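re: ur question from earlier - yeah i can do the single chain one, its not a big deal. heres the input i used so u can compare w yours
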Amino acid sequence: MMEAPVVNVGILTEKAVTFILNGDFIHTQTGHDLSGVQHVLWVDGQIVFNGRLYQELFFEPVSQDASFDLKAVTIGVHFHWQRNEDQRFRGSLYMRTSPEGIVTINQIDVEEYLTSVISSEMSAEASLELLQAHAVISRSWLLAQMEKRIQVDQDDRKYQSLYCDNEQLIRWYDREDHTLFDVCADDHCQRYQGITRASTPKVQEAIRKTRGEILTYDGEICDARFSKSCGGVTERFENCWEPVPHPYLTTLRDSRESGFPDLRIEAEAERWIRTAPEAFCNTHDPAILGQVLNNYDQETTDFYRWKVEYTQAQLAELIHRKTQINFGEITDLIPLERGTSGRIVKLKIVGTRRTYIIGKELEIRRTLSETHLYSSAFVVDKEGETADGIPQRFCLTGAGWGHGVGLCQIGAAVMGAKGYGYQEILTHYFPGAAIERRY
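and the output i got, formated as tokens:
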């Protein structure tokens, strides 16, 4: 059997890192065996370790059962559940200096990485069919990102994910942040928390049964995406990231039914969002939600349809702080373009001092929340307008949780509970894609 590839996962970037080597590791620069508690500091662009200066450090485990702990790893960065926790990892530990601090990277076999991802992204007690489906898409996404990193590195043109002028800011967040490693360990990519999240025989079975299986389209590895809840209709890739359509990341109804309105039309989007149409992901079944949502995710109770309210002062201050633009008082939030799931792609912010357009969906979600709005599929109600037309309150009514592209995790959990096989789940969310074993 062919060996699985090795992936470089960026765990954290800090000025000081404390880590524990559980078992013997070789410090490759010196050839010394090390174990126990270790400390590194970032000083003047270099790493200080055991009284010497380095540009990089590499620690290779002597045995397969060796592991290392990283102290105070931040998870859920900028999300409402952000917190620090100690995490344990297998594989090699690689550190290198950067302008921001010490970049700490875990080099790990792809299949072992996936065992952690599946346990980190959702409950390890999820149905076997859901776990197998998620194993295939997580593997596909990972290998696609590893290929994309090589392509971006070889391309003479700078990867562009930002368009900005005096009238608008259009930005998306994807591969551009990660030049020193393949993927990060947080929700920006896919959750990877080492062996901190206890795996189960069922997770290991799902990884084993799907070993090497990926989704392909026309012979290319699918950039398989997923989010918590699509809100009833999935979104197109190009409405959230670079404007390159992927036929397998298209729009579909998350239901046995196939028909749905054109949610790019404002009136249709408003009707859809203000109601709660039947969909796989329209569930409050705690047994099903517990398969997908870890303890901190379950702090979120309303996600299929949700509401957020701001006073004028709260919203004006929030937008000013997030954009560094003084809009004055906010008079309106106007959707200029919606995607096929009703998610806003371009939003016009109108204030008493100026007007500005922002996009895409994640930029909108970050601007209108201390952390992230659940999604950019929302409609706005203005209340208590003064005589000069200044609203005193804004109520955002929204649909779904996340970007809505590709697999809907809660919808897939419902499908698994209803008896759909993992291949049927994949066929539903990635139409036209094939399942292929690469190793």
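The chain has a mean pLDDT of 91. not sure if urs matches, ping me
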